[in-house]
Amino acid sequence: MKKLFIFFAMSLICLDVWSQAKLKTQCKFGFKAGSGTQTVTGCPVKTKPRIALMAGMWVQIKISKSWTMQSELYEIAKGTGGEHQYPPRYGDYRLQLLYVEVPILFQYNKKKVYFEFGPGLAALINSGEYTKGGAFPYQAGLYPFNKKEFSFNLGTGYVFNEKWFVGLRLSHSLLPVRKQLPEISHQVYNRGIVLAVSRQISFKASGTRQSQVIE
Predict the structure, then answer these.
(1) What is the distance between the alpha carbons of residues 68 and 61, in angstroms, rounded to a whole number?
(2) Mean pLDDT, to the nearest integer, of 182-187?
(3) Which of 94, 106, 129, 138 would bridge 82 by S-S if both were Cys, CB 3.0 to 4.6 A apart?
(4) Which domains does the chain have, with CATH numbers?
(5) Cα–Cα dist 181/74, whole Å
(6) Is the pLDDT of residue 183 over 80?
(7) Please, how many CA atoms are within 13 Å of residue 96, restricted to the half-sphere of its CB?
(8) Residue-wise over 149-175: b if at least 16 C-beta within 10 A, else e?
(9) pTM score
(10) How far apart are CA 37 and CA 172, in angstroms?
(11) What percent of the chain has a predicted confidence (pLDDT) above 90?
(12) Residue 104 belongs to what H/E stretch?
């Protein structure tokens, strides 16, 4: 977790140095929140995607006329939601994973629409694996989840105005997040789609002195 915050802080420093020394432009900061569906591959029982939330912050700089670079820090839930039976049936399975994630995204901007892609690094801060009554078809303690996740992100979005925009993003683990389970032919990967709304806070510079103006 500590290393992840250091990674995000270094990203902020690098973006700020680049923008001030090379691009003569300001950084843009903001907050975001959203929800989506998450699931995992390589599960030994039948499952369906779970509805999961995310929230955090981001910083962005302009690197050319059409391209921007954005670093984010947010908390996001992943896992799978079982068969969604209420009340749960005997043997129903549920997986809850909670991560703090830092993606680095490259964004191509065309008028009010943008497209983005880039890697992400996440730290697992909490996990829970549950079944209703029945036993797991494996010894869960022998197959812990990795403490870190390396993923790839691909998305698009729409800018309403200078303050508000919305984005849709797909994410998939590049490396397995868990040791392959017995008698299962697929590796365990996280994958999901998230719809998020962002609120921008602009920091404007005047001459050699910078004054912070929250719009």
Answers:
(1) 6
(2) 79
(3) 94
(4) 2-210 (2.40.160.20)
(5) 29
(6) no
(7) 8
(8) bebebebbbebeeeeebebebebebee
(9) 0.80
(10) 12
(11) 48
(12) strand 93-110
Phi and psi angles of residue 61, each rounded to the nearest 5 degrees, phi first: -130, 155
Residue 174 has pLDDT above 80, yes or no: yes
CA-based nearest residue to 200, from 11, 51, 60, 36 = 60
137 by Cβ neighbours in 10 Å (0-12 / 13-18 / 19+) ranks as: middle
Q: How many CA atoms lie within 13 A of 196 on its CB side?
A: 26
Q: How many other C-beta atoms lie within 10 A of the C-beta of residue 41?
A: 16
Least confident of 103-107, 132-136, 152-156, 206-210: 206-210
Residue 209 is predicted with a pLDDT of 43
Residue 62's pLDDT is what? Answer: 87
Above 90 in pLDDT, residue 64? no
Cβ proximity of 127 and 96 under 8 Å:
yes
Strand 205-206 versus strand 190-202 pairing type: unpaired
Backbone angles phi, psi at 54, to 5 degrees: -145, 155
**CB-neighbour burial class of residue 101 (10 A; exposed 0-12, middle 13-18, buried 19+):** buried
